[in-house]
Amino acid sequence: MPRTFNRDGAWWIDFVDADGRRRRNKIGPNKRVAKDVLNDKLSKVARRVHLGVIDDSAISFKDFAALWLERITPQLQPRTVERWTSIIDQHLKPAFPGTLRAIAASHAESYTAARLEKGACPSTVNREVTVLKHLLRRAVEWEHLSRNPLLDTQGRPLSGLRALREPAGRTRFLSLDEIEGLLKACNTVQLRAFMVVALNTGMRRNEILSLTRKSIDWQNRIATLTETKNGTARHVHLNDAALNALRTLPPRLDSSRLFPFGPNQISMSFARIAKRAGISDVRLHDLRHTFASYQAMNGVAGRGLQVLLGHKDPRMTTRYSHLSDAYLRTAVDGVVLGSKSADAAVVG
């Protein structure tokens, strides 16, 4: 039976919540206040049990975000955890300083507009809003919110919060002269080796950083990746340039990993190297695009290019199709059949 009781001069309440768990809460020195709190708790339990009504939690957005990250982290890849944590800390927490239940669709729309105004690209904003949507969906599932403020009554995204249209995928790749200049601008063996491996394998930044000596089959020239973006292990073939670059790396005593860089550290180093080399409009990920582009221009296309890049979705590989088409056009133009016979027929 629900009750109030006094212990050591303080009044407590004792009741069973909507999930059937017994709750005891210390209220304070006033018995009447304790009774009022108990009646309020019992009213909420009755609405939850008999009507299915959930009262929105008073938890702050900041505190719920911490709870959300703690509970979903075991289900995510390390890179995803890193990226989502950054989005929460750098963007969402400052944008939503109040309680979780205070968030409305208009706030999310204002957030999107503000991020675009500050120069964030649509794909970046879409990823950030995706994190917000995931967080609010879990808030409903975990009964911190009675409804998702970003969905209409039919459970569909509100029109003002649909994903922004993103431009076609970037395919910036380095020319042969730019590649030479980039490698000359590398001022350490480790940096040069990283660039050579990236250019000759198309591996992602974190995939290269995850390499250990045990992950390299030096005889069969294969690197085995267990930490990939899509969570699926894959094998990467190493050509002479990549293999020799890995062999130049000095042994490390502090770690089993071949490269002594963190993700942000190597990205910042790349930016400085590109600046020294006088190369503009280039990012570290463009080394991957460079590998893919030259493979496409060398005739590798479709499923072959997809496997080389480790793309789970074949649509990700189609951005290089125009380069494959150029190769095919050159191949067709290079073989001309029947032209002499046709000329002879015209003359006759």
Search tags:
3-stranded antiparallel β-sheet, 348 residues, mainly alpha, single chain, elongated, 8% strand
Strand percent estimate: 5-15%
Distance between the termini: 112 Å
Please provide the count of β strands. 6
Q: What portion of residues is helical?
A: 40-55%
User: How would you state the average pLDDT, rounded?
Assistant: 83
Task: Provide a count of the helices.
Answer: 14
As residue ranges, the low-confidence spans are none
Side-by-side strand order of the widest sheet: 1-2-3
What is the H/E string?
Answer: EEEHHHHHHHHEEEHHHHHH
Q: The biggest beta sheet, please?
A: 3 strands, antiparallel
Radius of gyration: 29 Å
Structural account:
The chain is mainly α. Helices cover 51% and strands 8% of the residues. It has 14 helices and six strands. It has helices at residues 31-51, 61-72, 78-95, 105-117, 122-141, 176-184, 189-201, 205-209, 240-247, 263-276, 286-297, 302-309, 321-334, 339-347, and strands spanning 3-7, 10-16, 22-28, 216-217, 222-225, 234-237. It has a three-stranded antiparallel sheet, with helices on one face. It has a three-stranded antiparallel sheet with strand order 4-5-6, with no helix packed on it. Strand 4 (216-217) and strand 5 form a beta hairpin. The longest helix is centred in the N-terminal third of the chain and has 21 residues, at 31-51. The mean pLDDT is 83.
